[in-house]
Amino acid sequence: SKGNHAHFMRKEIFEQPLVVAQTLQSYVRAFEGEVAIPTADFDLSQVDRVTMVACGTSFYAGMVGKYWIERFARVPVDIDVASEFRYRDPVLEKGGLALFISQSGETADTLAALRHAREQGQRIAVVVNVPTSSMAREADLLLPTRAGPEIGVASTKAFTCQLAVLAALAVNLARARGRISADEEREIVAHLAEAPEAMARAIDHDEDIKAMAHLVAPARDVLYLGRGPDYPMALEGALKLKEISYIHAEGYAAGEMKHGPIALIDDAVPVIVLAPSGPLFDKTVSNMQEVRARGGRVILISDAEGIAAAGDGCVATIEMPAVHELIAPLVYAVPVQLLAYHVAVLKGTDVDQPRNLAKSVTVE
Ligand code: M6R
């Protein structure tokens, strides 16, 4: 049941602190300050390349995961959308690790890609939310998310739980490959453990975000900008908005704006900028200024420090708690979900069952 929420999507957004904590519990030994992926007959120290495949929101989780795995474990990651993977006949060395990410575990394109990878001698790891699904059954290494059943067609809690598992996997790989010390691991685990509380603080902004939905609802086009791991979060924000509000939205790497999309900017195009403080902040802000100089109406999502530095002149700001850059994607998922939700409610669409979409896409 939806409890006291108007839609399943809202309920599922609000459940995230709980289900992310639940998911992390299976992968993190908080007391020891260690991650613990159930690897069975897998030797993670032998993994020197990862091939990731997924669709939609799960693909964006994978893009964040690529960033983490390369950064912490220094293992190269290839990532494809499932519908492209098989047909480009990817070069897969025997014994490589192929990782499939899926809420449902039934997405036809992803399942076909998994079978293709197996035929090519890959070992199959699966991040999946439905433990009885086809992908779960066909995995050599099963990495379940513990989001519980997700009813809203727009994926929210399954996505952030996928991020939690991918972060743990990245750290585990880093340790197995001798890339991080026990102290560094303890520090990363401590940051991960802060994610649920930080997400709860992001959810506290529900009413503020509702109050700014009217800035986006009349738009025909919306842009989302981010850098580094917040670039896939920009893609995810745009997908959420498209799916449930039917407004055309695009996510861009902030630095790509000047290579074309900036031509779209005028005062009718809201631009949502995801920019947590950190090493990439100044660069993202200078891209944001380029947008503002062309009349673009910016909604800045940042922390108090970022908003103090760059919030002036934005049409609205959404203040996130200050968090370590590792967990920023988990936290910044919340405001983009809530913004899409409130815009859709304002437009009166069918939030949980948007037109033309199905919860699990079982045709290729
Ligand atoms: O069940 P899966 O994670 O494999 O589904 C993949 C996509 O179909 C899914 O993420 C879709 O993009 C969602 N509707 C996003 O909200």
Automatic annotation (TrEMBL):
Keyword terms, alphabetized: Aminotransferase, Cytoplasm, Glutamine amidotransferase, Repeat, Transferase
Catalytic activity line of the entry: D-fructose 6-phosphate + L-glutamine = D-glucosamine 6-phosphate + L-glutamate
Covered residues, full protein: 244 to 607 of 607
SIS domain segment(s): 40-179, 212-354
Subunit structure comment from the entry: Homodimer.
Official protein name in the record: Glutamine--fructose-6-phosphate aminotransferase [isomerizing]
Subcellular location: Cytoplasm
Primary gene name: glmS
Taxonomic classification: Bacteria, Pseudomonadati, Pseudomonadota, Alphaproteobacteria, Sphingomonadales
GO molecular-function terms, A-Z: glutamine-fructose-6-phosphate transaminase (isomerizing) activity
Coiled coil: none
Role, per record: Catalyzes the first step in hexosamine metabolism, converting fructose-6P into glucosamine-6P using glutamine as a nitrogen source.
Source species, domain of life: Bacteria
Residues annotated as catalytic: K359
Predominant location: cytoplasm
